[in-house]
């Protein structure tokens, strides 16, 4: 049975402890076997193994122990989940990529080499990343470290760690940022809501807005932290199923994914499943003479919202954003100029763009050529 594995992360004093308790209670009542993977760093610090204080340890060495323990704890949880007959939900109190926020790039690359993994390998361990903003961002009056003896950050340090932790996860396909513009209870409810959506359980449809850009201020954009991905994908159809085969590249690393979409008769829902594949399977399933979509994707956070900017080979620029609440207005980055809202325009879907590229092979779209 499919096991969902979720990371609950964020800055110090963000509400993780409360959220974890609510998650365990909520989904246990719904019949899930909920496994909470504790924060590895807190375990080590509580045992006297720490990168601060009188018996200080080098931070890179400490993070090596954290990663090793985290991997073991997650592996134990996965083994336990496999023996369950009921559906299982693994929730990690921080994920391995959190550790990237505490070391410099050189030390991080050394850690990747030591554990024989890539950044993609670490991202692929998890289905969903939920990042809770620290109370030091917008709710300073509630900032406290009384509930965690392993933490010593000042509000300023908490804000810095919060941002670095979020940046470590940029590029993951499912990152949800939950800020402090709502009440604390609404913040916790938002966490639960995002997990329901990840489990594909009945819940209000996720809102996603898409915009066609007329201009992009590259110099301003370069002032923010982003992850750059190179994407190539093609689509096949068989027996009522549409499968998107995708190659994702980042800094010399590559991963291959197959995403299958199928309409059902249950409330007219569309089921989407995703799996990792090999490069061999990716190229073997590519139809002859097909032209894949090729685009560069920039993933970044702006005003507690997660954006994806796609720039296609032909110059087409599309910006997507998923607001954290239905009533929350979208705050667009100041380095983009919007030509129009294309949220409901089917011509700007990836499938439409793909079929237009291959209209001589699969005549799915009558006409499509957006003006940049």
Global shape: globular
In this structure, how is the largest beta sheet organized?
A: 9 strands, antiparallel
* Amino-to-carboxy terminus distance: 46 Å
Computed over alpha carbons, the radius of gyration is 21 Å
Q: Detail the poorly predicted runs.
A: 363-372
Describe the structure.
It comes from Candidatus Faecenecus gallistercoris. With 372 residues, this protein is of the alpha/beta class. It folds into two domains: 3-198, 3-Layer(aba) Sandwich (Rossmann fold); 209-357, Hypothetical Protein Pfu-838710-001 (Beta Barrel). It has helices at 16-29, 40-46, 59-82, 105-115, 119-123, 155-169, 184-198, 218-221, 279-284, 350-357; strands at 3-10, 33-37, 88-93, 128-132, 175-178, 209-216, 227-238, 241-250, 253-263, 270-277, 293-302, 305-312, 317-322, 336-341. Helix 1 packs across helix 7. The longest helix is centred in the N-terminal third of the chain and has 24 residues, at 59-82. It is globular, with a radius of gyration of 21 Å. Residues 363-372 have low confidence and may be disordered.
How would you briefly describe this protein structure?
By secondary structure, the protein is of the alpha/beta class. It is built from ten helices and 14 strands.
Secondary structure layout plus pairing:
Blueprint: E1 3-10, H1 16-29, E2 33-37, H2 40-46, H3 59-82, E3 88-93, H4 105-115, H5 119-123, E4 128-132, H6 155-169, E5 175-178, H7 184-198, E6 209-216, H8 218-221, E7 227-238, E8 241-250, E9 253-263, E10 270-277, H9 279-284, E11 293-302, E12 305-312, E13 317-322, E14 336-341, H10 350-357
Parallel strand pairs: 1-3, 1-4, 2-3, 4-5
Antiparallel strand pairs: 6-13, 6-14, 7-8, 7-11, 8-9, 9-10, 11-12, 12-13
């Amino acid at each position: 049975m499919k096991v969902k594995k979720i990371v609950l992360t964020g800055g110090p004093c963000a509400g993780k402890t409360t959220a974890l308790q609510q998650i365990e209670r909520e989904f246990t009542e719904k019949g899930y076997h909920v496994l909470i993977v504790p924060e590895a760093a807190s375990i080590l610090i509580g045992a006297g193994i720490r990168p601060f204080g009188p018996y200080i340890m080098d931070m890179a060495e400490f993070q090596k122990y954290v990663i090793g323990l985290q991997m073991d704890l997650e592996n134990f949880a996965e083994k336990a989940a496999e023996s369950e007959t009921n559906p299982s939900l693994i929730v990690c109190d921080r994920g391995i990529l959190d550790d990237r926020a505490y070391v410099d790039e050189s030390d991080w690359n050394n850690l990747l080499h030591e554990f024989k993994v890539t950044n993609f390998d670490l991202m692929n361990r998890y289905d969903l990343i939920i990042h809770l903003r620290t109370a030091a961002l917008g709710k300073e009056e509630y900032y406290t470290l009384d509930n965690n003896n392993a933490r010593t950050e000042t509000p300023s340090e908490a804000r810095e760690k919060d941002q670095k932790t979020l940046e470590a996860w940029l590029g993951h396909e499912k990152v949800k940022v939950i800020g402090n513009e709502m009440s604390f209870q609404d913040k916790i409810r938002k966490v639960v809501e995002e997990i329901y959506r990840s489990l594909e359980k009945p819940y209000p449809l996720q809102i996603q807005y898409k915009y066609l850009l007329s201009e992009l201020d590259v110099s301003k954009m370069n002032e923010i932290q982003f992850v750059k991905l190179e994407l190539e994908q093609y689509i096949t159809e068989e027996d009522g199923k549409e499968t998107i085969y995708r190659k994702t590249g980042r800094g010399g690393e590559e991963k291959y994914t197959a995403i299958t979409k199928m309409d059902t008769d249950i409330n007219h829902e569309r089921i989407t499943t995703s799996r990792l594949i090999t490069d061999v399977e990716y190229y073997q399933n590519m139809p002859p003479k097909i032209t894949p979509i090729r685009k560069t994707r920039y993933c970044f956070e702006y005003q507690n919202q997660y954006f994806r900017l796609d720039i296609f080979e032909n110059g087409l620029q599309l910006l997507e954003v998923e607001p954290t609440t239905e009533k929350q207005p979208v705050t667009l980055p100041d380095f983009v100029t919007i030509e129009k809202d294309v949220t409901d325009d089917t011509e700007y879907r990836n499938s439409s763009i793909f079929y237009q590229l291959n209209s001589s092979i699969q005549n799915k779209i009558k006409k499509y050529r957006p003006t940049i």
